[in-house]
Specification:
The complex is a heterodimer of chains A (148) and B (124). Chain A is an all-alpha fold. Chain A has six helices and no strands. Helices cover 87% and strands 0% of the residues of chain A. In chain A, α2 packs antiparallel against α3 and α3 packs antiparallel against α4. Chain B is globular. Chain B is mainly alpha-helical. Chain B has five helices and no strands. The chains are: A mainly alpha (148), B mainly alpha (124).
Chain lengths: 148, 124
């Protein structure tokens, strides 16, 4: 009885639905992983972008945009907490943000003009450099604390 | 607490700022990873203040960059909203875990992940 009522199209429809649900779950998990590193004060975004392009079926440009967008709500909440605890030094932020704004605009325009696969390759190089540097910093700090 | 900024620090901040903007605009992230050490080593802020101030520094740059990416038609809203939800949840989780996990081990894992992911993008 039931076997007859399940037609081919309903199977296709349900497997399609399942696929979408799985994709959503994968995206949420990727977000949680990236966010966790971010919340621990490490560059969560630098990991979120390759996770999205590798496992989330997201283009390099879209992953970069999503990273920028996902940073905003986190930043606002974190800033409120940090302001209350008087940890923010606005004078320093301003001093760095103004020159940063001057270069951010042309480089973002350059990025959206790049082809996705070339941008991804540049990003890969950037990640390796950051990773090696991060490793050096972690090990160096470890050594200092060991000596004390 | 906040000392007067001397001329050398001003120059470091401006050069660092130019580099941070270029990187964050082009790669859509990573500015914070440069900004924190700049504030710590260059501007002599303590770690917690450096992290907090880095967020305020990166915020306007990210907004401007995002607007440009959006004009380029690169922000998928649905996917973005789903992932942002995950990121916020992860952010809370990370903040709670902070201090409970061995930070050096996490730092090394994080660095390794970056090198592996970067190598994959670079060569494959």
């Amino acid at each position: 009885m039931t076997a007859k009522s399940i037609t081919k199209s309903t199977v296709i429809r349900y497997s399609y639905l399942l696929l979408i649900i799985m994709k959503i779950i994968i995206l949420i998990i990727i977000g949680i992983i990236g966010g966790t590193f971010g919340g621990m004060g490490m560059g969560g975004g630098t990991l979120l972008i390759p996770l999205l392009t590798t496992f989330g079926d997201v283009s390099q440009h879209a992953a970069q945009s999503i990273n920028l967008a996902a940073f905003l709500p986190m930043a606002v909440v974190a800033l409120i907490i940090h302001f209350v605890k008087k940890r923010v030094v606005p004078k320093y932020a301003l001093l760095i943000a103004i020159p940063a704004m001057i270069t951010a605009i042309p480089s973002a325009i350059l990025a959206i003009r790049f082809e996705g696969h070339i941008l991804a390759r540049c990003f890969g190089g950037f990640l390796v450099v950051l990773g090696v540097w991060q490793m050096y910093r972690v090990i160096k700090i470890k050594r200092i604390t060991n000596n004390e | 607490m906040t000392n007067k900024i001397n001329k050398k620090q001003k120059i470091i901040a401006i050069i660092g700022g130019l580099a941070i903007g270029a990187v964050n605009g082009f790669f859509g992230g990573g500015g914070g990873m440069l900004c924190v050490p700049l504030l710590q080593q260059g501007m002599k802020l303590e770690a917690k203040k450096a992290h907090a101030t880095a967020i305020l520094t990166i915020l306007p740059i990210s907004v401007v960059s995002l607007i440009i990416y959006m004009i380029g038609g690169h922000l998928p809203l649905k996917q973005g909203a789903i992932i942002s939800g995950g990121v916020v949840a992860g952010g809370v989780l990370g903040a709670l875990l902070l201090g409970k996990l061995p930070s050096k081990a996490v730092g090394i894992i994080f660095a390794l992940l970056m090198i592996v992911a970067g190598g994959k993008l670079l060569f494959f």
